[in-house]
Amino acid sequence: MHSLKILQVCSAEHLGGGEHHVAELTAWLVDRGHAVHLAVRSQSPLYAMVGKLPVKWHTLPLAGAADLYSAAALARIIRKYRIDVIHGHVARDYPVCGVASKLTGARLFLTRHHFNPLKGGRLYGWTISGITRWLAVSGSVAAAIAGAFPPLAGRISIIPNWVDFELVGRVERNEARRRLGVGRRYAAAVIGQITPLKRQDLFLRAAAKVLGDFPELDLQLMIIGAAEYKDRDYEASLCALVQDLNLGDRVSFEGYRNDVRELYRGIDIVVVPSENEGFSLVIAEAMAAGCAVVASAEGPMQELIADGQTGVLARSGDSDSFAAAIAMLLTDSKLRGKMGEAASASTKDRFDRDRLLGRIEAIYQGHKER
User: Fold this and answer.
1) Which of 76, 153, 226, 314 has a beta carbon 3.0–4.6 Å from 146's, enabling a disulfide?
2) What CATH code is carried by the domain that includes residue 177?
């Protein structure tokens, strides 16, 4: 292993799965002895996450795909510090990183965290045509990249997000329930940013159907996550829906919790009704902790879950299908336990942190993927 000088580029200003990915990758690379630089916007959440590490910071506008000023600034950084690798993580940064790579010869890597299709226009395609490797977090994301940039399809590696097995589910059940404030026999939760894409409304409608059919179920419903300003109206609609469905005494809005990964054992069923995801880290972590998971039968969710074995896939957007799956698991403790055990066992190799980070390091160093 030879040490590298690596420039990570991430213009995100809000904390999400992609930012956790960049932060953990950065920490791991530093620990491995590489010199890591971070190019970010002034409001980057990465300052709080890895600010204590020996990382060289570069604050740039990173104003979008046409930001030639930032592209030139990245090129200057690459030349000054003799950067070997430039790695972009947000779609609007891809062309900027690509231009900087063309100007300097630094090897270009781009990670695609989202399922949304890329608009592969001719100019866009030219900026990233020298890419060394695309890193896609799922097969569905890889297919979307290949569809947008057919000439680059042979340069895609699928490297899923990883799970920190030392952290996930480490708090035992009774203590986890206490910290989560679970006072009922069962707890079902939807976890993630409050936004229409995550379909917290479908979770509530499905739960109301379950309780209509099984009113004796002592079930607590948890919405864990916060809304950005643009989604405040959606959050308000969820509060109104809770009242319309007569769920007021069962639903708690927990807001963002940075300890949720530790507390999965306090949740009986994790529900992921999203219509699509690039990669659902919530599913991977819940499975690792031994939770029963119900998710939409879409894209990467189908890659993560073996339906009926390590979780249940429900019809996307269908509250009746989700209700049936939730009810089945809540009323059959043996099935719920068996599925949770199988889910946990299935994650050990697939999402091993050091193995997956080691693959990224090896790709940086020029080793071919087998």
Assistant:
1) 153
2) 3.40.50.2000
